[in-house]
Amino acid sequence: MTSTRILAIRHGETPWNVDTRIQGHTDIGLNEEGQWQAQQLAKALAAEDIDAVYASDLSRAFNTAQAIAASHQLNVTKLPGLRERHLGHFQGQTWAEIETHHPEDASRWRKREPDWTPQGGGESLVMLNQRIASLAHEIAAQHLGQHIVWVTHGGVLDILYRLATGQSLQAPRTWSLRNTAINRLLWTPEGLQLVGWADERHLDNKEAREENSA
After folding, report:
1. The domain containing residue 53 runs over which residues?
2. Annotated catalytic, 190?
3. Domain count of the chain?
4. I need a labelling partner for 39 at 20 to 30 A (CA). Which of 99, 127, 145, 152 fits?
5. Marked catalytic residue, from 25, 84, 86, 123
6. What is the C-alpha separation between 146 and 21, in angstroms, rounded?
């Protein structure tokens, strides 16, 4: 076999997601909704053949991945390379605070300037793209003929979508990046291909939500 099937999934919801506070490399755990999302995700994938589970080492991604791995009797392999984009001094601030206190940087961020690098150790989009493209090739090449899971972050998934569809780094985002939505990719030595994106049906299970809150 010369291809690898990939399930690329964003972590469950966190308190900072709700607050629109930038997380980046800050380690923020799942909230109650995020834990519920992770369990629903695990149920949705329980019948699929999965050979390996990888996750960012940040707890919001790792704990989401653990829910999937547990139902398949697998361990989660931590990969710091699957971390969110490092957003430097933006981390810990809300969108509104960034707009107020850093208007010039906020404008460059909104315009998706590829080489703009946030102060405080941040990554540019070019740097993030290089990191994810390299890691995707490295890991997928180890699992030819297999089906693997990557639990990661919104910025990483954005890059994976662009790599699979040929969208430029500056193209406006028109695709969903909802927490725990199921995204399917196919990797070959020639690159990534998009198979399916933003399957959210497991999050519409109202009976399961009511049972969880009872």
Report:
1. 4-213
2. no
3. 1
4. 145
5. 84
6. 36
59/125 Cα distance (integer angstroms) = 23
| pLDDT score for 1 | 72
Whether 84 sits among the annotated catalytic residues: the reply is yes
CATH number of the domain where residue 107 is located:
3.40.50.1240
Exposure string over 20-37, b if 16+ CB within 10 A, otherwise e:
ebbbbbbebbbbebbbbb
Write down the pLDDT at residue 212. 53
Are the C-beta atoms of residues 56 and 153 closer than 8 Å to each other?
Answer: yes
Q: Rounded to whole angstroms, how far apart are CA atoms 38 and 33?
A: 9
Residue 8: the pLDDT is: 98
